[in-house]
Amino acid sequence: MLQRLLGEVQRLGLATASSVADRFATLVRGTGIGSPLDAIDVAAAARSLLAPVLSPPAVGGEVESVDLGSAPAGGEATGSVWVHNTTDQPAPDLTLRRGDLIGPATAAIPSAAVALAPAGPVTVPAGASAAIRITVAVPPAAAGGTYRGLLVLSDPPGGVVALRLVVTTSPVTP
Amino acid sequence: MIVPDSADVTTDVTAELLRYAEACRTAIPAYLPADGVTPYLRTPVADYLARPGKGLRPALCLATCEAFGGAVADAIPSAVAIELLHTAFLVHDDLADGSELRRGQPTLHERYGAALALNAGDALGVYAMSALEDNRAGLGGSLAGQIAAEFEFMARQTVDGQALDLGWRIDNRLDIGPDDYLELIMRKTCWYTTILPLRVGAITGSRGRADVEPMIRFGFLLGAAFQIQDDILNLTASGGAYGKEPLGDLLEGKRTLMLIHVLAAMSPADRNRIEGFLAAPRASRGREDAIWVAARMEALGSIAFAKAFAAGIASDAATAFAAAFAGVGETSAKAFVRSMIPFMVERTW
After folding, report:
1. pLDDT value at position B108?
2. What is the pLDDT of residues B275-299, one digit of tens each?
3. So what's the pLDDT on residue B320?
4. Measured between CB atoms, does B214 come within 8 Å of chain A?
5. Is the N or C terminus of chain A more exposed, i.e. has fewer CB atoms within 10 Å?
């Protein structure tokens, strides 16, 4: 129980810190300070962020299930998948593949409505964790009910995270 | 060119920290007035600089410069400016907070009086600008201007953060949450402690070609872990290498994660007592009450909460480091910066 609570506090810490860091990155981008002097090298740096910089190849990773909470039809639901590399080797080029979210009866939210950030491969150093942000744009015509789907970790294969989302058809009151 | 990381490149973090810090410390006297300055200024200005600090900020700047292909000497003026500004902030902070100890000795205002301490703090800021000006000769006007803009942005964040910290105490704000705390330390501490040194080091080493935006995330995670551990040490450390007044944060009414947690977790009667303690003027807050608050924090899990919160932040720092140093070849300088992640959380001084 205590371990679970501490795990929740750790997630709170990182989620809150991530929010602050992202906000300040946007703020600084607006000022123009720190902009590279050579635009060609900016592109190279951006490419390198998505390139495998660690070797040898990935040897393992673990993923969690994610409850996206509830969102109204036409609204948006967000959450994060945490990838924990519990090995002593870096795990380069990890990607998550999206599937449809299956709802009640024949209802479904197509995989195209599920956005991941970062969208490209993620490199997780040995013993580290990485967060992948999930945003589901719930179609306006989506039926109310519980939707479930899967994200599949492409490398190494077999890693799966279950998604759960409740779609409401009337505005959610706090 | 993308160069694979190598697990073979390791570093003795303490030895490297001392080496980089020493490179900066050796260069500082050239930027301080030697002759023709009254001892009423020269003596207090030199006081804190003669006390051995960790040298964390200049070390991050110098190592990052090396990692991005530059030489240590390229970033010395900026590293000196960072250290002098840091010292200026300490002098003013200690005065504003009524702190008694700094690096194991009386604070500047305790030793020389508030007026001379305040003036010495102003002077240190002026000398920092002189050091920064030296970048023009070494790096050229364009790069020097880019670095100066980084310093200007940092200084705005720092003074804004300090005002927020002081304002919360003056108004005895008790509705502060963990997100407010992180916002505060981003402005007050992280920007000048980690983010600026990393960004300026990368700009200098790459001659302005590096994308330094990812340094914000890495620097913040690193700096937040540093500050939370600093707050914890103030409650748990006892003398020795720590160098600050034990329980000083409580006596100063500083808003920390532990205070935020304990206020939420304690009984209404206990909360009333702590509210009264925080509402009292600094001089009226008794050490016995501070010891009681610290004991409640321990009993209610506030310290464990802060440690877990910091661990969560540090858990993603390695990933943020990989993004910030993507495409940078593996060197001992890069390994040193990476090694600062566990150092920030585990340090006891």
Report:
1. 97
2. 999 998 888 888 899 999 999 999 9
3. 92
4. yes
5. C
C-alpha to C-alpha distances, A109 to A100, A115, B56, B69, nearest whole angstrom: 6, 12, 50, 49
Q: Determine, for residues B209 and A36 on separate chains, whether the beta-carbon distance falls below 8 Å.
A: yes
Query: What angle in degrees, to the nearest 10, is found between the helix axes of B114-133 and B39-49?
Result: 70
- Which single residue is written with the structure tokens 């910089």? A53
Contacts of A128 in chain B (CB under 8 A): 315-319
Which of A21, A33, A42 has the CB atom closest to B220's CB atom? A21
Residue whose C-alpha is closest to residue B254's, from B97, B143, B145, B137? B97
Q: What is the pLDDT of residue B325?
A: 95
The vertex-B72 CA angle with B68 and B75, nearest 5°, equals 80
Please state the separation of Cα B259 from the chain's center in Å: 20
Distance CA B214, CA A108 (A): 37
* Cβ neighbours around A7 below 10 Å, total: 15
Radius of gyration of the CA atoms of chain A, in A: 18
Note which residues in 58-117 of chain A have CB less than 8 A from chain B. Answer: 90
Residue A117 near residue A18 (C-beta atoms within 8 A): no
Q: Is B203 on the interface with A (CB under 8 A)?
A: yes
User: In the structure encoding, which two tokens stand for residue A115, read together?
Assistant: 């956005």
Map out the domains of chain B with their CATH numbers: 13-346 (1.10.600.10)
In angstroms, the CA B226 to CA B348 distance is 11
Q: What is the pLDDT of residues B56-104, one digit of tens each?
A: 999 999 999 999 999 999 999 999 999 999 999 999 999 998 888 898 8
Q: How far apart are CA B233 and CA B237, in angstroms?
A: 5
Determine phi and psi for B188, rounding to 5 degrees.
Answer: -75, -35
Residue A9 predicted with pLDDT over 60:
yes
Q: What is the pLDDT of residue B88?
A: 97
Interchain proximity A38–B322, CB inside 8 Å: no
Residue B269 has, within 13 A of its CA and on its CB side, a CA count of: 0
Q: Is the pLDDT of residue B229 over 60?
A: yes
Closest chain B residue by Cα to residue A21: B217
Which pLDDT tens digit goes with each residue over A123-138? Answer: 877 767 777 888 999 9
AA identity, residue B99? S
Better-predicted residue by pLDDT, A54 or B252? B252
